[in-house]
Amino acid sequence: MPSNRPITPSSLSIKDQPWQIHWDKDKCTLCGSCTAVCPVNAINLDVFRKRKVETSLGLNSSSSSVFKVYHGIRQKTDSAYACVGCAMCTQVCPNDAIMPYKSDEAGKLIFHVNRGGQPRRRGGRRNVAGGLLDQIKFIRISMLTDPALDAGRHEFELRTLLGRVLPPEEGIAHFKEKGWIPPVREIYPLLIGSMSFGALSPPMWEGLQMGVAYLNEELNMPVRICTGEGGCPPRLLRSRFLQYVILQIASGYFGWDEIIHAIPDMKVDPCAIEIKYGQGAKPGDGGLLMWYKVNKLIAAIRGVPAGVSLPSPPTHQTQYSIEESVAKMIQSMSMAWGFRVPVYPKISGTSTALAVLNNLTRNPYAAGLAIDGEDGGTGAAYDVSMNSMGHPIASNLRDCYLDLAAQGKQNEIPLFAGGGIGKTGNLAANAAALIMLGASGVQVGKYIMQAAAGCLGSETDRCNICNIGLCPKGITSQDPRLYRRLNADEVAQRVVDVYLSFDTELKKIVAPLGRSTSLPIGMSDALGINHRDVAERLKIQYVV
Amino acid sequence: MCRLFAMTGDTPISPMVALNALDVMREGHDGSGVGLFLRDLGGPFDDMKNAPILSGIFTKNGIKRLDTFMMNLGFMTKYKISFKLPKNSPQGVPHRDVYLVRAYEYPEEWEGRNFEELGKELMNIRLQLREMGQAEKDMIVFSFWPDVIMIKEIGDPLTVGKYLNLGREDLTARVIMAQGRQNTNYAINLYACHPFFLQGISTMTNGENTAFVPIKEFLKSRDFPGYTGFQSDSEVFTHILHYALKGLGLSIEAYKHIITPLYGTDLETHPDAQLLKQLKQSCRKMIIDGPNCVIGSLPDHSLFMVQDRKKLRPGVVGGHPGQYAFASEICGLDAVIPDRDKSKDFQPMHLDTAIVGPDRQEINICRQTDPLPPLH
Ligand code: SF4
Ligand code: SF4
After folding, report:
1. Range name among A179-183, A209-213, B155-159 with the lowest pLDDT average
2. Looking at A125-227, which runs of residues are DSSP E strands?
3. Is residue B80 part of a domain?
4. pTM attached to this predicted model
5. Bridge pairing between strands A310-311 and B3-13
6. pLDDT, tens digit, 9 for 90 and up, residues B304-337
């Protein structure tokens, strides 16, 4: 900033930036790769001044200092161009000459991102690292009273059920009388949660679908993936791969025109229908696809004009009460597929979850309940929703499970938990903890983006620009120049890697607990935590 | 580990035979406790098949309370076994005032009630007594059922048997189950000792049920007063069997499909695949886990043995028509029926239910992949 200019309230120095670029003049060859790759134009080629001492060689002349210019990389300080720490510049630099560093003090940018009166929106998760799930330990180790199982050699039956399970008496009666038995799917307990086509780029979506198909058809792992609220590509709707897909319907009904019209042509039924009432990252707020990402393809699939932002309403507009909302929608969705497809709602974690659950227990068509906790990720949401709204998943899920158990319905309405599972990389341990707290399965999104596609986002607010279509990894961008960085086959390969390693780790957890014949849903005696209040709240053991 | 021995024969025998068999297998239990289940009784009880027999342990005060309680209900004592105990109990066996085995006459007003109703009442009385006893610590009640006697005590099985003089002539049975206990928790609660009993169904287990907590939660929520106790993770095997037979009207062949259901191609290609899938889903919360060998006795006098899904515990069945025994180890079998054709001994594997029916003519092997008997 030149010294004769006025300082505006939002004038910040590099020191005030949350991410600071360190650039090494000696290593830089001024190739321009970093400035070209930076998704937010945070750096540019600039002119710097240097002072040089010129030593005199002659006897009569004295040494002097001269000023010269040189060219280098400069970080912008305007908040509109703030570095997001993605480190793509580092990735492309042939000489390792540039690297973003997290500021050593609280960044000041946060106070100025709302210029123009528009609060910050971003992708990612609540900017709080770590979480409770990592602190839960598995303490009931079988050794002598019960020889431990061998995770590598024994057989394990770790599938779960998605669908309304009849109580045993009714199940047998319906079987004998050839009555209606609600559809139930036997699936793998780790689901890829709802990430829409539109939020994700074409190669990302394709890669996920291919990975899931491979897991099912080559490895006999019944993995399921949810579409999110963005419809489903027409060819997928008419292919056999639809059976691995959970179609989501949300308050914007995006893509449902296409889906409904495709029903007569469907070769197989979808795995299930998820009705989204809420999402952990932005509870009480609708979906959001910002205009940057609504290109022709996305617009066509969603049945909307291109280039406009697509905020879904916070609730389903046609309904006004939970009874009506849940009952009507579940019933009409069930009816659309001849009552052959499980239909379940997904809500964000909330202290009112029990009310929803109790309503579902009375609805014979409700096939389950998915709860997405406060640590859930998103492609776009208001920062404030992400950071401050919502309920932690552990106690929410536990309350629901214990409530079902008190009613004797713990086997009838499967609960699926999501939000922050594998946040610090401990995917299997987090998933197993939730299962033992009562979840029938878990949904993950962000973890898959990180592990299968190399997403850079983190809870230290790194990157997280998924909302504006500039994803430097091509995961959440609709710009072919960006998404061609991502290869669908390689994503598929990584999805398979993730599942295979998860499967081994899950066995490494359940085998020492002496469990192999069924998924240990609600096996709370295996859990312990080094915190008395948490132990009491979750009704697990307090261990120190 | 614990050791199990069970026997069924045309001629009533003394429970000491079973305790001797346990003694032969003593390497597998530490002598910390013993449980006996006798059914299809011989001796004086042979003539009172319908009279409910109360088995338990009482203090002097407990007996008084019991008498008042039963009298008020209108039960009259019909016959009882009096145990004359030596002054001092052997080492490791606690001193008790009264070991009770007493057959009752039903109250008059109960006449005309069908067995279903009687069974319900008998169970409720047993539970009530159990509760009363737990409150005052003066009675422990094991069973209250026609033609069934149960004895449980802490200590080495053979020592306990001799101390109680179980070799007496008036105590014999055609069906006997016995368990020698490996103590896993220092203070032994007799309610945690096998065999477990509920409305004519009894099972005992050698193993550890690692799925205990979810199963317990499920059974508790069935709203059936008999599913209670849960002092041992093996007690739920009895409850699940009861639920399968009485609650769901299934047969013993279906029991294994509930505790360790089939999966994969075995399930897909099973002739009753549709029913089995339905059962597997509906009864998912009753799937057991861990290593377990379960031996059980049914109201029709059949004895059976099933293993966990991986068959991680030993178990063998052998004998000859008219007499069969189930044991944890072959040496236990050898001790009791040495003259059998050993080549016909059968060790049930992960899919098998071995059943010796009431006629005691053969060992029926029911594989899980076999068709199920039709539902009724
Ligand atoms: S770290 Fe990312 S945002 Fe920051 S300068 Fe480098 S490329 Fe640009
Ligand atoms: S790498 Fe892409 S998906 Fe990941 S946080 Fe950045 S913009 Fe979002």
Report:
1. B155-159
2. 137-138, 160-163, 184-187, 190-192, 225-226
3. no
4. 0.95
5. unpaired
6. 999 999 888 889 999 999 999 999 999 999 999 9
DSSP element (H, E) containing B228: none
Q: Check CB contact under 8 Å for B212 and A525.
A: yes
User: If you measure from the C-alpha of residue A122 to the centroid of ligand 2, how many angstroms do you get, rounded to a whole number?
Assistant: 10
| pLDDT tens profile A93-106 | 999 999 999 999 88
ipTM of the complex: 0.93
Q: Which residue of A has its CA nearest to B275?
A: A175
DSSP lists the bridge partners of residue B196 as: B203
B194: three-class secondary structure by DSSP = coil
Q: Is residue B72 part of a domain?
A: no
| CB contact (8 A) between residue A172 and residue B248 | yes
A14-118 and A133-542 share one fold:
no
Interchain proximity B279–A410, CB inside 8 Å: no
Q: Each residue of A61-116: pLDDT tens digit?
A: 888 899 999 999 999 998 889 999 999 999 999 999 999 999 998 878 889 989 88
Q: For residue B157, say if its preceding peptide bond is cis, omega within 30 degrees of 0.
A: no
Nearest CA to B344 out of B317, B364, B315 is that of: B317
CATH superfamily name and code, A133-542: Aldolase class I (3.20.20.70)
Contact A529, A435 (CB under 8 A): no
Residue B191 within any structural domain of the chain: yes
Residues 6+ apart with CB under 8 A from B267: B261, B273, B276, B277, B280
Facing residue for A146 by CB, picked from B210, B223, B250:
B210
Half-sphere exposure (Cβ direction) of A421: Cα atoms closer than 13 Å: 32
pLDDT per position as a tens digit, A317-363: 766 676 777 888 899 999 999 999 999 999 999 999 999 999 999 99
CA-closest candidate to residue A387, choices A196, A135, A121:
A121
| DSSP SS3 for A337 | coil
A336 interfaces chain B, CB cutoff of 8 Å: no
Into how many domains does chain B fold?
1
Tell me which CATH code domain A14-118 carries.
3.30.70
Q: In this structure, how many other beta carbons lie within 10 angstroms of the beta carbon of residue A443?
A: 29
Name the residue among B218, B260, B281 with its Cβ closest to that of A161: B281
Q: Is A172 on the interface with B (CB under 8 A)?
A: yes
Interacting residues of B373 by C-beta distance below 8 A, sequence separation 6+? B251, B253
Question: Domain containing B151: what range?
Answer: 3-49+147-367
- Among A17, A19, A92, A462, say which to mutate for ligand 1: greatest number of ligand atoms within 8 Å of CB: A19
Binding site membership of A476 for ligand 2 (Cβ less than 6 Å) = yes
Q: What is the pLDDT of residues B168-213, one digit of tens each?
A: 999 999 999 999 876 555 567 888 889 999 999 999 999 889 999 9
**Among the listed residues A365, A277, A367, the one whose alpha carbon sits nearest the alpha carbon of residue A317:** A277
Q: Where are the domains of chain A?
A: 14-118, 133-542
All residues at 6 or more sequence positions from B281 whose CB lies less than 8 Å from its CB, including other chains: A161, A165, A166, A171, A184
The answer to whether B282 contacts A181, with C-beta atoms less than 8 Å apart, is no
With a 6 A CB cut-off, is A465 part of the ligand 2 pocket? Answer: yes
Q: How far is the CA of A42 from the centre of ligand 1 (A)?
A: 6
Contact A43, A65 (CB under 8 A): no
Separation of alpha carbons B208 and B312, rounded Å: 10
**Cα–Cα nearest to A193, from A221, A173, A212:** A212
Instruction: Kindly state whether residue B320 falls inside one of the protein's structural domains.
Output: yes
Q: Which residues of B touch A170 (CB under 8 A)?
A: 282
